[in-house]
Design a protein that fits this description.
heterodimer, A: 291 residues, TIM Barrel, 8-stranded parallel barrel, 8 strands, B: 221 residues, 2 domains, 4-stranded parallel beta sheet, 6 strands
């Protein structure tokens, strides 16, 4: 089922991020995700996240599909030119994948193969346009596709914490014009700032999912503040986590995430959870957040 | 030697939009040799502009537009006319357009597309870079090249990796789109951020047969 159908039901849509393994033993993670089926609307599978070699998004999505889980396939511009990207879009349709999240992708030099050629033949806006064209039966060169065209629900990302924000919003507008039907954000820790962002983009009329990254430790929060674009964990959250001490840290971390979700869910149309290996805690957090 | 080709005039006029009073600036170096700049190019562009109903604030020919010292010195005599103009149409390579935009706070419009960089590259004594993409994008980006200044050569705006105005690839390096944003803000052209760029046509990077036949190209063999 396309993600847009969930939004149409007017409920708070919940997705969670899935990072395929670096190696072929994927069974365990798939089993963990199956246990979340009743809680999570769709599973968003990364495409070589952080430019680190892993199992691909498309194969993982297909495996989820076979377990009756709804996948969202991430597609980045880093590794494939327009021929490769369009072919993968068609292949995804053939495998029954109905949701695509189109991103630029991290630069190759940030990952575990910094020697690789960064492709970026297309950017995220152009990729969305290309998929929209395929959905209308034409490839990027204007050639007709044979038979019925593929149909997808297309998503895109935005960083609501970017400074300046204006270029991000200008690009978000282009993404929506190019066919994005829902928007997923970078991790949010400051509810007020997020509310201000939502106010700035409300004219765009597209469902927005707030990103949640589980904070595993005060050190992780500080690392993200120093190194990850557009993420700012305020000091009071870091202090709260520090004060909990090592034994109660997990519990406190989940409590913080649940509280954020509770505050954010009324401001936007969905929540996207990036658990970074803590899949086993997702159900508990959602329960605490009344989802 | 930087090989340039004249942009289709429709493209130049589209990027000029409502701007009426135009200053024309041409390079008398490589672009003159390519027949895309020099005195002839200037006269031809003047005719095209007048045909399109534009008025000409002034014209100037400079030996090497890639040399910012030369450009600044020579244009100091034309400053009054330049200040009155809405924008400058520059008949030169990608380096020349970037150099001009760096020394003069005016909107610049490239009149040429750069298709190849071969051998000795003009005077080019500074930090501007041209990728010879054959589809010069400098019109809408405040004269800062997104292809060479962005690590991912993104045309439609910054990626999510820009942090504190720096690039995700190297925190010492400015985010090209941050520079473009600041320049457009300074020029009062933030609306240019809305311009949607189609995917690049990489076949335009291949020097065409007429370019390959020029003596300069031959001499490099």
């Amino acid at each position: 089922m396309k993600l847009i159908e969930h939004f149409k039901q007017g409920k708070c849509v919940v997705t969670c991020e899935v990072g395929p393994p670096k190696g072929i033993e994927i069974e365990k993670i798939i089993e963990e995700l199956v246990s979340l089926q009743s809680k999570v609307d769709a599973f968003n599978v990364t495409d070589l996240q952080s430019s680190v070699l892993r199992v691909g998004s498309m194969a993982t999505c297909r495996l989820l599909k076979e377990k009756s889980l709804e996948p969202i396939m991430q597609l980045t511009c880093r590794d494939r030119n327009r021929l490769g990207l369009q072919s993968d879009v068609l292949s995804a349709a053939v495998l029954g994948i109905e949701n695509l999240l189109c991103l630029t992708g991290d630069h190759t030099t940030l990952g575990d193969h910094p020697q690789a050629m960064p492709v970026f033949d297309l950017d995220s806006v152009q990729l969305l346009s290309a998929v929209t064209a395929l959905m209308n039966g034409k490839d990027m060169a204007g050639n007709d596709l044979e038979g019925r065209p593929p149909q997808f629900c297309l998503g895109a990302v935005v960083n609501p914490g970017a400074d300046p924000l204006e270029p991000q919003i200008a690009k978000m507008e282009k993404k929506i014009a190019a066919g994005a039907q829902f928007i997923q954000t970078q991790a949010v820790y400051e509810v007020d700032k997020f509310a201000a962002f939502m106010e700035k983009v409300k004219h765009l009329n597209v469902p927005i999912m707030a990103g949640i990254v589980f904070l595993k430790s005060p050190g992780m929060a500080k690392f993200m503040n120093a190194n990850v674009a557009g993420i700012h964990v305020p000091d009071d959250i870091i202090d709260e986590l520090t004060a909990a001490g090592k034994e109660k840290r997990v519990e406190k971390s989940l409590e913080i995430s649940a509280r954020l979700i509770k505050e954010l869910k009324g401001l936007c149309q969905g929540i996207h959870i990036m658990s970074l290996g803590w899949e086993r805690h997702i159900a508990a957090v959602l329960e605490m957040a009344d989802l | 030697m930087l090989f340039t080709k004249t942009k289709p005039i429709e493209e130049v006029l589209e990027s000029l939009g409502d701007e009426k009073n135009i200053f024309l600036l041409a390079c008398d170096g490589c672009a003159e040799a390519c027949g895309t700049g020099g005195k002839d190019g200037l006269v031809q562009m003047k005719n095209e502009m007048e045909k399109a109903g534009k008025s000409i604030a002034g014209t100037c020919l400079v030996d090497f537009l890639c040399n910012k010292v030369l450009v600044t010195t020579r244009l100091s005599r034309e400053m009054e006319q330049i200040q009155q103009a809405d924008s400058i149409v520059v008949l030169t390579c990608g380096i020349g357009v970037q150099a001009v935009s760096k020394v003069i706070s005016k909107v610049v419009h490239p009149a040429d597309d750069t298709v190849s960089l071969g051998g000795m590259q003009g005077l080019w004594p500074s930090d501007e870079r041209c990728n010879a993409c054959g589809q010069c994008a400098l019109d809408y980006t405040g004269g800062i090249c997104p292809i060479t200044m962005c690590a991912k050569s993104l045309l439609n705006g910054p990626c999510g990796g820009t942090k504190d105005g720096k690039c995700e690839v190297d925190p010492e390096k400015d985010c090209g789109w941050q520079l473009i944003y600041e320049r457009l803000e300074k020029l009062g052209r933030l609306k240019n951020l809305k311009k949607v760029y189609s995917p690049r046509d990489y076949s335009k990077m291949l020097p065409s047969e007429d370019v390959r036949k020029t003596s300069f190209y031959d001499l490099e063999k």
